[in-house]
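Quick one:
INPUT:
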């Protein structure tokens, strides 16, 4: 029996996959919506049914990568914020290495800033969500934890960008440990650890 939802998600996924294939070998500015739709065996009308524009499909392709990484990563311990003894930063770095060509293309100069801002906002929201235990302990009125989180998410995005663009063959464990220490050394002085002991 025909299932409209399955057909919709199948078409959506096909457009994402097709865009991804094109994006890996074609400069962003040379990719057209018509070309994406045609290679996917669809029309421009089909494309616009799922995506607003080329920026939107690029952003959603990144989200697809992120969700895949998330689904393949071990469960995070809510107290330690570690998954199998490793920070989520480690898994994000491993994802970057596994998809290095995608990230190289993502950091092209021709990528619109609005896409980068949406990605950083997404990373910030995901980080804020997973850091609930830290948020509960954060005692400062200013800056609010959300600002701290935005700062860390932006720093992490730039770390990835610099690693990718430098062509460095990085060790995810080493870089993850470095970033975790860099971003958390001063954080304990802002936490109300007394309330943690009472819980």
């Amino acid at each position: 029996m025909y299932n409209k939802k399955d057909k919709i998600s199948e078409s959506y996924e096909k457009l994402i996959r097709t865009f991804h294939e094109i994006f890996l070998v074609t400069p962003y500015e040379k990719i057209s919506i018509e070309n994406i739709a045609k290679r996917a065996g669809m029309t421009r009308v089909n494309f616009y049914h799922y995506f607003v524009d080329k920026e939107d499909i690029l952003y959603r392709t990144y989200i697809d990568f992120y969700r895949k990484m998330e689904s393949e990563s071990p469960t995070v311990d809510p107290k330690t914020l570690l998954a199998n003894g490793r920070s989520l930063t480690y898994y994000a770095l491993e994802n970057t290495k596994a998809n290095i060509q995608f990230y190289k293309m993502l950091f092209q100069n021709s990528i619109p800033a609005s896409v980068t801002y949406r990605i950083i906002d997404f990373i910030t929201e995901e980080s804020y969500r997973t850091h609930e235990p830290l948020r509960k302990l954060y005692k400062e009125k200013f800056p609010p934890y959300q600002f701290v989180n935005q700062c860390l998410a932006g720093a992490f995005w730039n770390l990835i960008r610099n690693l990718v663009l430098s062509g460095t063959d990085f060790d995810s464990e080493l870089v993850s440990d470095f970033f975790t220490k860099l971003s958390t050394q001063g954080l304990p002085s802002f936490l109300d650890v007394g309330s943690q002991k009472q819980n």
